[in-house]
Amino acid sequence: MSKTTHILLAEDDDNLGLLLQTYLKSKGFEVDLVRDGKTAFERFNERKYDFCLFDVMMPVMDGFTLAKEIREIDRKVPILFLTAKGLKEDKLEGFALGADDYLTKPFSMEELLARITAILRRIETPKDENGSIVLVGKIAFEPELRILHLQDGDKKLTTKENQLLTMLVKNQNEILDRQATLRAIWGDDNYFNGRSMDVYIAKLRKLLKEDEAIEIMNVHGKGFKFMVK
What we know:
Arc Repressor Mutant, subunit A, elongated, 4-stranded antiparallel β-sheet, about 230 residues, Rossmann fold
């Protein structure tokens, strides 16, 4: 990355908070650690952050409330929730509030780093001077609006189609790791999510076939490679 990514970390467990801060700093991030949601919101208003990492269960103000408050003033800053809860309803609530990802404790530091890196790559997708359109071969793509401008009309992508295409474009001519992509978009790299991703890849190939120069290759045992010939 061209600049240091500044992370706001809100975690009320002192040991885990310091462990996360130390690890992320060792990976080149700048990390401000706070221990409750109210302090996190005050800190967010004091300076600019590139990424938010929030525990859900915190004193004074919980992570969901904190995210809701932040989304009122900043619709784009990435938010990743950390929680001991694994309930589907909690995950849905988090995503409804504008979360980019959700990681259930306990988790490995390597997985956390992979999630953060994947989210940052998605939001750093190259854009034109208007900040909205990416050329995918000859096809115009607006990731923020989830729209592909095709010859037979505009196509509104689903959230997962949009995330997957964004990651493919960002990693053009490089192998996009299958497991890392599943974890970043589906939250788990299990067999059933893998089958779902294969369906989405097939859908994207069908949508992009009007430009014969575009190819999404399967790389056996590794993942996919997006190329424009």
